[in-house]
Amino acid sequence: MTVLDRARSPRPASPAADGTGPRTLLIRRGGWLSMRVRARTVVVVAGLVLIALVAAVVALGVGEYRVDPATVLSVLTGQNTGFDSVVVLEWRMPRILLALVLGAVLGMSGAIFQALTRNPLGSPDIIGFGIGAYTGALVALAVFGGGYYLMAGGAIVGGMITAVAVYALAYRSGVAGFRLIVVGIAVSAVLNSVNQWIVITIDLKQAITASVWSQGTLSGVEWTQLLPVAVCSAGAIVAVCALGSQLAVLQMGDDAAGALGVRVERVRLAYLVVGVVLVAVATAAAGPISFVALAAPQLARRLSGAAGVGLVGSAAMGAVLLLVSDLVAQTVLAPTQLPVGAVTVCVGGLYLVWLLITQVRRGRG
């Protein structure tokens, strides 16, 4: 892959011809691939990847048995095969990889729904798909007695049923983003009540399991749990890639997208299904982890200076947010470990306050 041209593309709001627009890279390969990538976006994604790698090295050494970063690197490069390698590779590596995968999955899911609704609050946390996935897992726990794969399957089914319900209730000769959010909030309120009723009615042992899992936790992750999550996530990401750049076109509005040849409702439904699968996979693996899907796309967009949310940047930001949050959860009250969901809720609360203040100031301006 080679960079053949470095150009300056006009800003969407002011298409001036004086060469002051954001830098872009024109990438071509073999005549079949041609794409433009904003140089600032590439730098931001590369920086986020670097932060994730550094955080991963630090997190691999955190715990009751501490391992310094130099030793972690020696284990990762195969120079240390002693007890440290067991701690790093067998005990801690699955948790770190799961945090990266789930963070990327949640960030990408949030980007999809914010693009579809064209609203920074249009995340699966707000619309209710995460709650629906949790409801499905609770039903599997109450009816079938739980088990990792049963609860995972229940989470995916619950998320899909919730998506169908929200989509059907919000459909009025098409689906408007604001209407989808309002209907999703209403459905979330109903499902929260259902979840509380289920927890109250099941036996004590199941209720404790549900309570811990409902906070969102990465504790006790093993390699056997990581593999199905990685496979399902990879399949959903392939589906996103197969849909191409139509998500960016949808952000221009239904009329503009239709004029450009996009079958709006069909494409929106396809993205909706993929987005629900992504958030359901994350919920099935670690429970409902709030606010990563809400915050990651907007933080990535502001860092990159893009006009709309991007999938790659959102995935990278989501991976960083969840991994750093899990690192904080392990260390802030050590040796007691917090559920990672408790940390992301705090981060999300601060983000919501900042977002509201920003919107108020913009409205006054």
Describe this structure in words.
The protein is globular, with a radius of gyration of 21 Å. With 365 residues, it is mainly α. Strands 1-2-3 form a 3-stranded antiparallel beta sheet. The protein has one domain (94-304, 313-364): ABC transporter involved in vitamin B12 uptake, BtuC (Orthogonal Bundle), CATH 1.10.3470.10. A hairpin with a 3-residue loop joins β2 and β3. The protein contains 15 helices and 3 strands.
Summed up:
This is Iron complex transport system permease protein. The chain is mostly helical and 365 residues long.
Total beta strand runs: 3
Coarse structural class: mainly alpha
Oligomeric state of the chains in view: single chain
CATH class: Mainly Alpha
Low-confidence stretches: 1-20, 30-34
CATH level-4 homologous superfamily: ABC transporter involved in vitamin B12 uptake, BtuC
Instruction: Domain count, please report it.
Output: 1
Mean pLDDT: 82
Q: Categorize the overall geometry.
A: globular
Strand content range: 5-15%
- The topology string of helices and strands comes to EEEHHHHHHHHHHHHHHH
The side-by-side strand order for the widest beta sheet comes to 1-2-3
Determine the fraction of residues in helical runs and give it as a percent range.
over 70%
Number of helices: 15
